Amino acid sequence: MSNNLLAGKKGIIFGALNKDSIAWKVAEQCHAQGAEFVLTNAPIAMRMGEINELAEATGSLIIPADATNMEDLDKLFKGAVEHLGGKLDFVLHSIGMSVNVRKGKHYTDLNYDWLEKGWDVSAVSFHKVMQTAWNLDCMNEWGSILALTYMAAQRTFPDYNDMADNKAYLESIARSFGYHWGVKKNVRVNTISQSPTMTTAGSGVKGFDGFVAYADKMSPLGNADADECASYCVMMFSDFTKKVTLQNLYHDGGFSNMGVSDVVMDQFISGGEK
Ligand SMILES: NC(=O)c1ccc[n+]([C@@H]2O[C@H](COP(=O)([O-])OP(=O)(O)OC[C@H]3O[C@@H](n4cnc5c(N)ncnc54)[C@H](O)[C@@H]3O)[C@@H](O)[C@H]2O)c1
């Protein structure tokens, strides 16, 4: 469905790795809504080359950048402004990685070098992205900056490991930097807290299938999928959300406000059905 909600808007989309990536769906929907953008990902993540397909389908340029590297980010933002022929209206940070999760290291036995790497990639990179855009003064007035997060920042999900702490830090950066963006440029900064979603990053979490099924049964509207998340991102980039800022926005079918649902409770009532 296209209503040209983003006609004339320019942006940068971080984190499209393959067709399952949330950022991939965001790029497709932003394109359908009339936006122009540059795609970026870590050089190492581009080896599979799938992002070329997305670039072709959306008429976008790819500029590789490690989101933890300030030189890469500087080149990316300068390159994007030059290619798009003007300042930016939106930025999507859709980046997450924990070495401890990847290597199956338990939360009570973390490797701190790995922790620092994951924290830099998953949380500090959001500050680095915004600081680069700030120093280059390359956001338009009333622009919108978004990062994706997960509710393990507020509630305990044991297998989410040190990513829970990274997400808490990420959400705090959104509020802290969002203040300065608002005052200086009327730019809004928010995080979207998305349901568990079957992607490369998601399925790195131990027992992820069970986790997805549980969240689905707990949520009155069921889990939100990647396409639905992309629609929410489009809305946050559109002019319909100009005064929404410093928020952590739950996009989870209602999960975050549930205690228990009938269908989950049924599993624990003796004799099965209520
Ligand atoms: N999948 C879920 O269940 C879920 C739920 C809530 C939030 N999120 C968040 O959504 C975002 C996108 O993840 P996804 O689920 O689409 O998975 P994904 O694996 O498709 O995307 C993660 C991206 O991060 C990129 N990345 C890693 N290191 C990088 C670096 N140094 N520089 C630049 N990019 C780097 C990867 O290449 C990849 O494209 C992440 O922030 C994730 O935590 C995911």
From TrEMBL:
<dbReference type="InterPro" id="IPR036291">
    <property type="entry name" value="NAD(P)-bd_dom_sf"/>
</dbReference>
<feature type="active site" description="Proton acceptor">
    <location>
        <position position="150"/>
    </location>
</feature>
<protein>
    <recommendedName>
        <fullName>Enoyl-[acyl-carrier-protein] reductase [NADH]</fullName>
        <ecNumber>1.3.1.9</ecNumber>
    </recommendedName>
</protein>
<comment type="pathway">
    <text>Lipid metabolism; fatty acid biosynthesis.</text>
</comment>
<dbReference type="GO" id="GO:0004318">
    <property type="term" value="F:enoyl-[acyl-carrier-protein] reductase (NADH) activity"/>
</dbReference>
<keyword id="KW-0444">Lipid biosynthesis</keyword>
<comment type="similarity">
    <text>Belongs to the short-chain dehydrogenases/reductases (SDR) family. FabI subfamily.</text>
</comment>
<dbReference type="InterPro" id="IPR002347">
    <property type="entry name" value="SDR_fam"/>
</dbReference>
<keyword id="KW-0520">NAD</keyword>
<keyword id="KW-0560">Oxidoreductase</keyword>
<dbReference type="Pfam" id="PF13561">
    <property type="entry name" value="adh_short_C2"/>
</dbReference>
<feature type="binding site">
    <location>
        <position position="95"/>
    </location>
    <ligand>
        <name>NAD(+)</name>
    </ligand>
</feature>
<keyword id="KW-0443">Lipid metabolism</keyword>
<dbReference type="InterPro" id="IPR014358">
    <property type="entry name" value="Enoyl-ACP_Rdtase_NADH"/>
</dbReference>
<keyword id="KW-0276">Fatty acid metabolism</keyword>
<keyword id="KW-0275">Fatty acid biosynthesis</keyword>
<feature type="active site" description="Proton acceptor">
    <location>
        <position position="160"/>
    </location>
</feature>
<feature type="binding site">
    <location>
        <position position="15"/>
    </location>
    <ligand>
        <name>NAD(+)</name>
    </ligand>
</feature>
<feature type="binding site">
    <location>
        <begin position="21"/>
        <end position="22"/>
    </location>
    <ligand>
        <name>NAD(+)</name>
    </ligand>
</feature>
<feature type="binding site">
    <location>
        <position position="167"/>
    </location>
    <ligand>
        <name>NAD(+)</name>
    </ligand>
</feature>
<dbReference type="GO" id="GO:0006633">
    <property type="term" value="P:fatty acid biosynthetic process"/>
</dbReference>
